[in-house]
Amino acid sequence: MISVVMPCFNCAAHLERGMRSVLSQSYRDIELILINDGSTDDSLQVASAIENSRIVIISQSNQGVSAARNKGLSVARGRYVAFLDADDEWAPEFLEKMFARLEDRPECALAYCGWQNIGMPGLRGEPYIPPDYEGADKLATLLADCPWPIHAALTRREMIYSVGGFNPRFAIGEDFLLWLEIALSHPIVRVPEVLAYYHHHGGQQATRSRVQVALATTGVQKHFLSVHPEALHALGRKKARRVIYGTLLDRGYAYYWRRDLVPARAIFRKVMRSAYGAPKDWRYMLISLLPLSVHRKLIQLFETRQ
């Protein structure tokens, strides 16, 4: 009934926990399709050591997460599909509750739930339950940012096939684009519980990665509107710019107020190149053209005078 697709690239340290999270689900009619995407560590050995008839292991040369997930989709047999990265996990009742919700709502293409980031500081580590997106401003709300992480949804398989799976053009934000393609063409339904967990363990959270994520989001938004002119028409060009560059500017401000200036400056420069922002925004953005050391000193001077 449910196919779980799990891409894996050098995740030996976390893989067993992720696989056990799937195999220990209270809903049992599942298959776990593990795509070993050219791992050079012991990932394949770890996966092979877990004996269970519901596991399918496929190895391929390293082609990236989109290609790995698409490979899993090509052999998936379930009516429903869920994605879980090798280093993340679900609550034991994740599949049971998500499946029940979609069975109750046959008109809905996917179900999504709340999640929690484990090991992240401050508010970023708090449990989060997203809103009900089936409202009057669904297009603008969903387009503003990726509404849920890859592992916080259960989707009807035919819906994923109908939009062509994951676009390999996008190394970051490929899940955002998939959700837009599905959720903006069909009703979706929320399960208002925290059932998915992301484990933060460094590496991908470097400054460069944070900037890449922000700019990739902009790239996905622009691509979606370019291939869906009817969505651009529905929004209007002015609102579309506000959704795209206003969201990017907000992300830059979030880093700026935390005094995380390196990603803030990179994002501000991107916004300026798009000629977006009010005069008060440009007061903050223009200073990012100065050398970083000068920028820091000016902020310290301002804070001292406050």
Can you put this structure into words, describing what you see?
With 306 residues, this protein is α/β, with parallel strands linked by helices. It has helices at residues 12-23, 43-48, 65-75, 94-104, 138-144, 157-162, 174-183, 207-227, 229-235, 237-257, 261-273, 279-286, 292-305; strands spanning 2-8, 30-37, 55-60, 80-83, 89-90, 110-118, 153-156, 188-199. The chain has two domains: 2-199, Spore Coat Polysaccharide Biosynthesis Protein SpsA, Chain A (Alpha-Beta Complex), CATH 3.90.550.10; 207-305, no CATH class. An eight-stranded mixed β-sheet has the order 3-2-1-4-7-6-8-5, sandwiched between helices. Helix 5 packs parallel to helix 10 (237-257), helix 8 (207-227) crosses helix 9 (229-235) and helix 8 runs antiparallel to helix 10. The model is unreliable at 203-207 (pLDDT under 50).
Give the beta-strand count.
8
**Number of distinct helices:** 13
CATH topology of the largest domain: Spore Coat Polysaccharide Biosynthesis Protein SpsA, Chain A
How would a crystallographer describe the biggest sheet? Answer: 8 strands, mixed
| CATH hierarchy, class of the largest domain | Alpha Beta
First and last CA, distance: 61 Å
Helix share bin: 40-55%
Write down the overall geometry.
globular
The share of residues in extended strands comes to 15-25%
Mean pLDDT level: 93
